[in-house]
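Appendix B, record 7
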Amino acid sequence: MSMGLPDLGIITMSETVQAVHYIVDRVKLPLIVDVDTGFGEAINIGRVVRELENMDVAALHIEDQVMPKKCGHLPGKQVVSTEEMIKRIVAAKESTRNGIVLIARTDARAVEGMDATVERARAYAEAGADVIFPEALETREEFREFSKKVGVPLLANMTEFGKSPYMTASELERIGYKIVIFPMTALRASLMAMEDVYSEIKRLGTQKELVGRLMTREDSYRLIDYYSYEAFDSKAARSAAAVLKSL
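Structure tokens (predicted):
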């Protein structure tokens, strides 16, 4: 979305790695990276694992859709065979050097039903996946059933406007889910805010009435650590002056 492109596997590995680089350079919290179907065959999966580990990414998730993949909450998805997905998992596990957490996502619920999804999840865990991510479960009962039948750590996706019911993190924790992601919430809020702001500017010809809704310059500078750059630049100038003086 940040590149103005749909979730159809269009983003390349290099673009993903570059975006991750910007994040890990500024944010020290553990990061989960979505690598879609792995950007190719086993050798491509191995490379992306190594690239992410070099940046100390905490975890990645890889899915069992065919390429071109689709957003997990849209119709018309297709999944690869269990054997093919296990190959992806094994390639990722055999490429890890630092123990990056491997999350295996299955989109089989909409394609093959719940029973097949459970069987796939068990097979993926046996192949080495550390966490299972069942995408687009449709009811609270399905979330509970999946947790009872798959005895490994689970991830739940609480995206908006999809097939899954809205459940709280504590509710999901009670039924056995260890990780909950809200992957689009902040971006959707930001997009709506930007649309509102530019509509208002177009209507009024000024942003004056919006100033109270904006992050201040001071707060934005603190967010990007502006003053440390300024201090570094001043220090470098003083050091250079001292060197010149000593010549």
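Remarks on this record: The chain has a mean pLDDT of 96. Residues 226-246 form the longest helix (21 residues).
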